[in-house]
Amino acid sequence: MNLGLSVQHRLPGFTLDVRAEAPPGLTVLFGPSGSGKTTLINAVAGLLRPDRGHITVGDWVLLDSATGQFLPPHRRRIGYIFQEGRLFPHLNVRQNLLYGRWFAPRDARGESLGRVVEMLGIGHLLTRRPGALSGGEKQRVAIGRALLAGPRLILADEPLAALDEARKAEILPYFERLRDEVSVPILYVSHSLAEVARLATTVIALRDGRVVAVGTPGQVLGDAGAVGARDAASVLTARVVAHHDDGLSELATAAGPLLLPQVAAPPGAILRVRIAASDVILAREAPRGLSSLNILSGIIAEIRPGMGPGALVTLAVGNERLIARITRRSVAALALEPGQPCHAILKSVAVPPEDVGGGPLSPE
Ligand SMILES: Nc1ncnc2c1ncn2[C@@H]1O[C@H](COP(=O)(O)OP(=O)(O)OP(=O)(O)O)[C@@H](O)[C@H]1O
């Protein structure tokens, strides 16, 4: 179901003016602090009645200021997943889960308890109270509770922000499953590049209350205007080929083979790999005698000089695009120009595990 977001709202010193459309799947609302994510989410939730707006989930209208339509928050059928799980401490996990369903309208075709418990791997936790759960387990229960309320839209407001890296790694695969196995659209607020790359079907990048880019993770993270040159990255689709004894995993991508530190997925799994542009080095000649294990050869598609000393160079490598952030001085010294053959070098250890995750880049 498509998500239609058109919201215009003026606050003292800040104006939100967002117009974006997202296809089914998981839409990440991405932007720096103060860019308007919470204000927009509040409009979607019905906690804010914007000056003007039109918000739709498929053909279901939450708000249409032109006709005076404003669905009150309790009738919006939104499943919330907050930063802290917000579970009821006096209820056990099963009761917390069923509390969500208690509020589901009778005609809601929500997921069954059994399916949600299986999907989130929380069967062994059902009789425990939240006080006896880890942060990651609490968050899995919170996802289950949101799902069982029979929502038409799931709103996840920085759901991983309060967790440490290990807990984040534990939860990310569940959001991947939610994206791939549940048909309810998900609006997910984040300012983490790793989450954008791994989870998003669509990214809406906000800055100063406006949309600066809408597209796939590869399109938006590759757009220096949207994320800043420092954070520009490529997002490659990769298939796990094999895990080697020396702790490296071999992946196949349309840009060529990659060797990365052991990834947590079996051979055959399809993953996304975010490669920060600043981790890529370029060479005109095929390098020899180099310690780097990943050398991908392509053709320079574009060179974009930045305002400062840097430039972003995009290589067409096979069917993929790989972005490198190098200095303008190096562009001149190597006499780089579009159309030239060029070699991209990536250190295996430069790609951290959180930048490698499950899921194809577009819904299949
Ligand atoms: N009720 C309000 N009155 C006046 N200004 C507000 C109000 N609510 C938010 N703002 C301002 O609107 C801007 C956007 O805030 P918002 O909370 O939507 O940003 P955000 O992207 O969610 O930020 P963060 O990531 O820090 O949560 C900020 O400059 C904020 O100070």
From TrEMBL:
Database matches in SMART domains: AAA
Domain Mop intervals: 289-355
Keywords annotated in UniProt: ATP-binding, Cell inner membrane, Cell membrane, Membrane, Molybdenum, Nucleotide-binding, Translocase, Transport
Residues of the ABC transporter domain: 1-233
One example GO MF annotation: ATP binding
Keyword tRNA-binding: no
Protein's name in the database: Molybdenum ABC transporter ATP-binding protein
